[in-house]
């Protein structure tokens, strides 16, 4: 077959144009895949409840498509219970212009909020957002803070204690006098306790060095001990468990991590769920939701958790109706 010169010339021109246009056209990248959001996590102390809330937060972000190393960068800082360190972390995150700061624990939330009134702050494990000075009202927050509260249902805790230890009259509570969230819980307990024919014997400490002496003084005067959501006290659970188990007296905790560390039981909230819910809220802010329209929310659902090993050691029988709806854990960690 003979091809005319004019046709060859036309084919050549078309080929050159195709190559030229192909070089002009570049692949289009979706903007969402190139944007990196910077998230700072400020945690007040290291213990199981706060650690699991941090894990829940990251999983909550993941569930909405925000994954570390892909479209978000996460920096985690722990102040190890030191307020001055917490303040430096807050200042660092401000200087680095984080898109969102996640504050775990009341002291972390306070230091972060005191450092910035513009960067969106998501909080968790904060007991009373109003008493902390961060907002004036739960109903009308209207600032740069939202998240979840770990305010525990004190009435449910005392009801559970009374069902398991019907003869209990005096309940001890040890708390850190520097933690506002603990003082809120003590007040609530003292208000509610008479309804269950209970007297609350509270003992405050300033640091862990005072704990052993306080435990020795209180263990012989109470029928049981209650551990609030207190960062300092929670980190000392091995010592508390040792002192009370040696006297065959039970400990009741505010949440599951306390039970895994030696408390007999709790009817409390899940810190993983708190963190997860906070992570979802952070994702909503990254997606464009105005944080000033959001609130600090409380979890309504609680879960009974029983430590089988502690029951056996203290020779305590748990009523069947409680066991049937409880999560059972076995070892003291």
Automatic annotation (TrEMBL):
Q: Which Gene3D superfamilies match?
A: 3.40.50.2300
The cross-references to InterPro entries, in alphabetical order and at most eight, read: ABC_transpt-TYRBP-like, Peripla_BP_I
- Which SUPFAM superfamilies does the record associate with it? Periplasmic binding protein-like I
For this protein, the record's CDD domains field holds:
PBP1_ABC_unchar_transporter
Q: Enumerate the PANTHER family for this protein.
A: ABC TRANSPORTER, SUBSTRATE-BINDING LIPOPROTEIN, ABC TRANSPORTER, SUBSTRATE-BINDING LIPOPROTEIN-RELATED
Q: Which UniProt keywords apply?
A: Membrane, Transmembrane, Transmembrane helix
Q: Carries keyword NAD? A: no
What organism does the record attribute this protein to? Clostridium putrefaciens
Q: What is this protein called?
A: Extracellular substrate-binding protein
Which regions span the lipid bilayer?
A: 6-25
What Pfam families does the annotation carry?
ABC_sub_bind
